[in-house]
Amino acid sequence: MLGNEAIVKALLEENVTHLFGFPGGSVMPLYDEFLNHTDNLRHVLVRHEQGAAHAADAYARVTGKAGVCLATSGPGATNLVTGIMTAYMDSSPVIAFGGQVPTGLIGNDAFQETAMMGVTALITKHNFQIRSANKIRSTIKKAFVLALNGRPGPIYIELPKDVQTSEVINEEKDTHIAGFKPKISGHFGQIRKAADLILNSEMPVIIAGGGILWANACNELNQLVEMLNIPVTTTIMGKSCFPEQHPLSLGVLGMHGRKVANYAIANSDLIIAIGCRFNDRITGNLDTFAEKSKVIHIDIDSAEIGKNVPVDLPIVGDAKNVLHRLNAVLAKLAQKKDSIWADKIKRFIKECDCVLDINSNPIDPRMLIFEFNKIIKEQDIVATGVGQQQMFCTHFLKRSRPRTIISSGGAGTMGFGLPAALGAKVAVPNVEVYNFDGDGSFAMTMQELGTLKEENIKVISIIMNNAYLGMVRQWAELFFDKRYSAVHLKRTPDFAKVANAYNLEGYSVSKPNEIVPTLKEACNSDEAVVIDVHVKEEANILPMFATGGNITDMFGDCIHIPGKLF
Q1: What is the tens place of the pLDDT at every residue in 412-424?
Q2: Active site positions, annotated
Q3: Is residue 269 part of a domain?
Q4: What φ, ψ does residue 540 adopt, rounded to 5°?
């Protein structure tokens, strides 16, 4: 058995059925071996290596399994870096393979050699350089264990060309990872203390982060909410872990979140944070965040507890395991809590439902969401690009099933949307997958339309085209006296014609009454579709608060008294 055979065998042993990649000289032996496995291992040929990484990331997010991507050495591998970093910031289990020059040339500045072990050291959970074919299968096994257990994250594996063509003679069997013992169950004494704090609180709020989804803990979260009538807000990464049509769903919190979510956090006496890291877009000014509240923080990564927000009760463990045990304790002790706080929050939630049916011309972005809500089914998946469209989508588009919306949160990677939608559709082919994007973000990776066409992958791209880098323009308007610098994209290119150039259907929409018919036509298509929706150029996503501001200092049309949300 040669090294290239060992690599494929290791992937199949991990039940890998799909990978996303782009070939090159240093990985040609591996690509040659793929030809022997076309019946059980599908390789999706992307048009840029960044697309491969984002597609693998999205594949992981919608399935909970590891996504796999592959590139050649040098520029091929460095093109993976943005996607690897995006996965790292959002705790996504991606296995990224990169070729390398033969071992005897490493360090000689050979053709297409890059020191990727150094490049990826700080943006991966771990990285490996395989210098012997005997270590291929054991290393890949370790990579999957590390990526999927504890706090998930990306792993980079470097494959020198000669290792792929060398004979496996004395294969390493040891797959033990020294020192890797993630804490799963949580300390029972801490869980019991958490139950007491929850039962003695009068105004508790749950912050549900992406850790709920990675732990598959949505049912346990629902049980806790129903048992004690506790309102729930989510981070962008946690969106869809709790049904947003539920009367106790506050939606997303933070800088561009819903004012009812920020109100609940500001006025609670207990915050139960699960699988979130309290990043600055959630907290705003750390000195005033949760100043009235005690904080329970449940997270599988002990390094996140107390890093940003002081914690009264830490619990290190897997969210599903900890919530299951917490619910069992509460079930023995609790009766359904008095609903005064819950009823108040439910009333504010209803008040906070914005009017989206705004029949204006040019199209208001909120109207686009309003019409989109009429078409999308609860099982369908939405990937978003990064910018205003991301915030309009996370703020106004309600999702009820887990893993049905994916977005780049920590990194805020423009260009994420289209390749992410591609990866999601490969993972879940029997639902509609939408890319809700902006003109600036879509243009960064629109070459993946070629992948969609040639690989017969159907994604419906909805472009919220405002002719600007919308979020940067909004900030320039609000915080730089409307001094617009390098933000006006105008209306170039014509995205419908770009789709046509790839032999795909493209539509331009400029009137509100055209949105639904065009979406229906796209749903009836058998191929990928691009819908270029021309929206109002200088619309803002509000309410919001400024960087470093207090979460109660939101401003916008629905804020009538500064500092007072209701």
Answers
A1: 999 999 999 999 9
A2: 49, 111-112, 161, 471
A3: yes
A4: -115, 150
